Amino acid sequence: MSSRMDNKSYLVPMNGNGVHSKNSVNSKTLNGSGVNGKVVHGNGIHHVSVNGTLYPAKAKSRRQRWSVKPSEMANNTLNPIRAIVDGMKLTPNPDKPMIALSIGDPTVFGNLPTDDSVLQAMKDAIDSQKYNGYAPSVGYLKSRQAVANFYSCTEAPLEAEDVILTSGCSQAIDLAISVLCNPGDNILVPCPGFSLYKTLAVSMGIEVKLYNLLPEKSWEVDLQHLESLIDERTSCMIVTNPSNPCGSVFSKEHLQKILKVASKHCLPILADEIYSDMVFPGVDSPSVATLSSDVPILSCGGLAKRWLVPGWRMGWILIHDRNNVFGTEIRRGLVKLSQRILGACSIVQGALESILNNTPQSFYQETISFLKSNSELCFNELSIVPGLTPLMPSGAMYLMVGIDMDHFPDFKNDVDFTEKLVTEQSVFCLPASAFEYPNYFRVVVTVPEELMIEACSRITEFCQRHYRPRSSDSNDLDQ
Fold first, then answer.
1. Helix, strand, or coil here: 38?
2. What span, in angstroms and rounded, lies between the C-alpha atoms of 460 and 191?
């Protein structure tokens, strides 16, 4: 081998597949001039020939000192619940055990276990040794088909290709927003509503427009307000049904009115249906896709709530296209986004078909019966407390309670009210300012019945201590 450097240099371009392809060329013919083994291309990039291979010359660093900063996306990511709760001074009364009515996790108190058939499905999936490797980014075909079969109906038929499995419903919402929206777009979000929508959207440079829900109408959408927010940059409408934090359930007629607005403005719907079918007896809860003839819908759901396994992180997107509005592009976009992180746990995917097909109806019915009973208990107890206005839910796991702050001058707002409730009574309810809806608090109704009774008793004692009649009320009494 010659000790002299080869008088030829090699360009190493990258083709579209990321594969190197060497082309032998003379350094004097490289879109520039070869001088002493150095080449300047027409694009102004310097290259140096070393042992016959052409490398880009190292650019001189302009940094004079360390400066590593978080990205704009990181800086723009904020969870409203965490922002409020972390700022609260939560010091429980040491003489009273803490009762947390704030956490939307049905497993916290251990009184709502999942069904034995669900556990057995997981054990079988593990023992089979078939699900220890990577699954396809969109999920196993067999598992996707199982979800499609479970939710498919005449009004909204589904096939495996219409299902994408995700790491919980949260990732499903993330993918849905990501595929429908660009920075500078805006989305319509219910108020009060689940805080994650804003957390995800704002981090992506997407504006959030809040449309009002009406407590006096069982939290129905203020349709006039909703429509007034739509402009040319509105990319989707989020509909949460049943609702977190309200526990409300939209009727078929109301869903049709929402669809009418979406149809008029050619606006796709992101349907958060994680509490699908978790409705109290006698309440009708159709999926919005079953009512849509022309509005395309991405429905997000999962195992977390109905099957009482939020930690298993199994969610899905159901693609309900209408008149080929989504076409292949939205589907392809969802597949691409799913490839960023391989989402749903492979073992849970392996158990999914059995979970969906073999969970007995009695399990669902017992869960719903308990949630309704606890909701009625809480509603009845707090309805007679001066200054509070609870709203009876129709599903999900939550109950909203209004606070007439004029009657509680000791407190500045709902955050202050709930903070002092912890200090004095060791009961923690989430202030609804976390849902951008001040002067309410949310109660999670999954706690054991005896704890719900005790919590309501403490809330009553707290309110009786701090309640003050309005000055006008005193004048009325004097007259």
1. strand
2. 27
Burial 25-36 (b: 16+ CB within 10 A, else e): bebeebebebee
Query: What value does the mean pLDDT of the chain take?
Result: 90
Taking CA atoms, 15 is separated from 19, 30, 136, 336, in Å, by 6, 18, 26, 20
Residue pair 335/317 in contact (Cβ under 8 Å)? The answer is: no
Residue with tokens 């050619």: 266
Q: Determine contact, residues 206/151, Cβ cutoff 8 Å.
A: no
Contact present, 159 and 369 (Cβ < 8 Å)? no
SS3 content of the chain, % helix, strand, coil (to 5): 40, 20, 40
Task: Give me the amino acid identity at 380.
Answer: N
Out of 6-15, 70-79, 240-249, least confident range: 6-15
pLDDT in tens, 256-275: 999 999 999 999 999 999 99
Give the per-residue pLDDT at 409: 96
The Cα–Cα gap between 420 and 424 comes to: 6
For 271-285, what is the mean pLDDT?
95
Q: Coil, strand, or helix at residue 456? A: helix
